[in-house]
Amino acid sequence: MTITGSCLCGSIQYSADVDQYTSALCHCTDCQKWTGGAFTSNALVPRSSFKVTKGTPSTYDVTGNSGKINKHFFCSGCGSSLYTELEIMPDSTVIKAGGLDNGAAKLGGKIDLELYVKDRVPYLAAAEGAKQQEAM
């Protein structure tokens, strides 16, 4: 299947050809700051399957708890968070689910994995059936 997405203004578009993907929530404080929300919802796809099909995203690098770089990609026009490439996960691209097209932000109705649950805000419960991971 091909999943597609874009930023809010449409200047940046992307796609990934995948058989399946891992759906994940990340509760780390960097994701909270980056999105202005309590967590990020994500589709983890093989980096080799991901491509930007329109525009050129801007980037911002953050050093993660691992000491490795987390490269955040975003639209400089509208500010939409698009995807992340983590040095600690060199074979994956972490697509921010809110930018996925055709209602795909719902991630198929299930979450496979929750990361940094130690930083999860107390008013949110664990996603039913998701593997819970304290950190990365």
From TrEMBL:
Q: Which Gene3D superfamilies did the record assign?
A: glutathione-dependent formaldehyde- activating enzyme (gfa) (3.90.1590.10)
Per the record, the similarity remark reads: Belongs to the Gfa family.
On whether DNA-binding is a keyword of this UniProt record, the answer is no
Q: Which PROSITE patterns match?
A: CENP_V_GFA
Q: Which organism is it from?
A: Penicillium chermesinum
The entry's protein name is CENP-V/GFA domain-containing protein
UniProt keyword annotations, A-Z: Lyase, Metal-binding, Zinc
What are the GO MF terms of this UniProt record?
A: carbon-sulfur lyase activity; metal ion binding
Q: CENP-V/GFA domain: from which residue to which, for each copy?
A: 3-124
